[in-house]
Specification:
about 350 residues, Beta-Lactamase, alpha+beta, five-stranded mixed sheet, 2 domains, 11 helices, Alpha-Beta Plaits
């Protein structure tokens, strides 16, 4: 099914009694959608996948296509698991379900709907989808059944919950402390974590480092390709940056094409430089934004406590000063100089 056929797809996640454990039927009869439902799906800000029983993508809404760097209809007909997930995630999920259900579960497409087939409510589960440029896209997908008019299951619908639609306190708290475009923590979170990390570092005689990361020529790219492409670049860069850092580190979006990262519990300044070099190499890879495959030039400045300050602001200023010294066309990494004193 192609994207223009979206109005023919989709029965909502169904509260009726679950289907038996018999194999799902192969009928391709889809329930018709009204105009309002179609518009809601197409304008929904999270990704929405309609999947056939063979595991292929029958339809993906525009937000999902953009999120994964594909053009309209480009993913239709592709195998969802092979294209977007990978075998390791399926095996991990099958093992989790086997432990929960007390019996073996095959590591294939069926793991997405295994709970539904058994009449167990299917909560949103965490997955890491694969962007067209290869970068990881962490998300959560709630899976429901698609049924024909006779009530038979004919496919699955997987929906990425839109954060601002959630009513629970945890979701609202997440929005308060995370950037709406990239999902990274806010600068206020960075400031709090930096203060605690510096205090801990002073007690333990360790190092805390700040990286200031810049996509060179970001504004020019936005003017040439449009600011929606700029948003895609920021999302892709944020995802790559988050993936390259350790779990204990923090990355945030700054102004324009800049990001900052806080590296904690380091032993030497060389550790910070090596992490920065790894990040610079990963972020410099080409990004597919649909309209073009864009090469990026990334510059990174590095500073650290206690050599360059004992608060976040002077550390960021020192990192910015180092960043300004990176002038080559291929970008690079520079560390702030040590004081003569």
């Amino acid at each position: 099914m192609s994207a223009p056929d979206a109005r023919r797809t989709l029965a909502a996640m169904d509260p009726r009694p679950p289907a038996p454990l018999n194999p799902w039927p192969s009928t391709a009869a889809w329930l018709a959608l009204g105009e309002v439902q179609s518009l809601l799906l197409e304008s929904y800000t999270g990704a929405v996948f309609c999947l056939g029983l063979d595991g292929r993508i029958d339809w993906l809404n525009p937000a999902g296509s953009r999120r994964l760097g594909h053009g309209p209809g480009e993913l239709v007909g592709h195998d969802f698991c092979d294209c977007l997930l990978g075998r390791d995630q399926l095996e991990r999920r099958a093992k989790e379900l086997a432990e929960e259900l007390g019996e073996p579960v095959a590591a294939g497409f069926g793991v997405l709907g295994e709970r539904l087939r058994r009449g167990i409510p299917s909560d949103a589960h965490g997955w890491v989808l694969r962007h067209k440029d290869g970068s990881p896209q962490p998300t959560r997908l709630a899976v429901g059944a698609l049924r024909d008019r006779a009530g038979e299951i004919i496919g699955l619908i997987a929906i990425e919950p839109a954060p601002f639609f959630a009513a629970d306190d945890d979701a609202r708290l997440h929005l308060t402390h995370h950037d709406g475009l990239t999902g990274l923590p806010t600068r206020a979170v960075l400031a709090d974590r930096a203060e605690m990390a510096i205090q801990r570092s002073a007690r333990q005689h360790s190092l805390v480092s700040t990286l200031l990361v810049e996509i060179a020529g970001f504004e020019d790219l936005c003017k040439q390709y449009g600011y929606s492409v700029g948003d895609d670049l920021l999302r892709a860069t944020a995802s790559r940056l988050h993936f390259e850092l350790r779990k204990t580190d923090t990355a945030v979006r700054m102004d324009g094409g800049q990001f900052a990262a806080l590296l904690v519990d380091l032993h030497t300044a060389e550790e910070a430089r090596l992490i920065a070099a790894k990040v610079q190499q990963a972020l410099s890879a080409k990004v597919n934004v649909g309209v073009a495959i864009l090469p990026l030039t990334v510059r990174i400045g590095v500073a650290w406590f206690p050599a360059h300050g004992d608060q976040l602001l002077p550390l960021l200023q020192a990192a910015d000063g180092a960043l300004q010294g990176v002038t080559g066309e291929r970008g690079g990494v520079a560390c702030a100089p040590l004081s003569a004193n």
